[in-house]
Structure formats: C-alpha cells, structure tokens
Amino acid sequence: MNLGVVPLVSFSASLLLFVPKGDEKADLVEIFRAEMDSEPQSLKDSSNKIIGGVQIAEYRSCAQQNTHRPQRRFVPGRLFLGNVLGLDSAARFFL
Hints:
The protein has a two-stranded antiparallel sheet with strand order 1-2. The chain has helices at 46-57, 60-66, 82-94; strands at 14-20, 38-44. The protein contains three helices and two strands, in the order E-E-H-H-H. The longest helix is centred in the C-terminal third of the chain and has 13 residues, at 82-94.
C-alpha cells in the first residue's frame, strides 16, 4: 500500500457468525435462536490488522502532539472515558 498498490476488495472482508446463547433441548436436532438470543461475531483476516497497525505506528507521536486537546477518543495516551465523564458531570450539574 505504501507503494500505491490498491488492496483487493477481500482485504476488508469478514465472516459474520451468529453464535447461539445458552442450551436448549431442541439443540440436539437443530440449533435455532431468535435475534436477541444469538451473539454476532465477526471473523476478520488478521493481515489487515497487522498492516494497519504498522501504518498507524508511524503517525502515533505526531497524532499525540498535534491533535486538539479536547479530542480524547482514539488518541494514544489520552483518557478514553474523559468525554463520558465530562458529559455525566454536566448532566448531573444541569439536571
């Protein structure tokens, strides 16, 4: 990708599974669950995670130094829950 080669469409593809929650008597014959009784799982190719991690590692220190201070999410080294705590405090103060 650094050389300008466009990855294949399947590079971002994943396999979606719906794993049933719990056990039922009928599971010996057929496993069938309603939407709320299954847990979705996405199986993704690990190569795109590795390549993405290597790509972003080059920009990590630059992002930490140049991202605006109120931006806390998805910036390494910053408090991920800072915005949630700020909203919670404001809601308690004004309500």
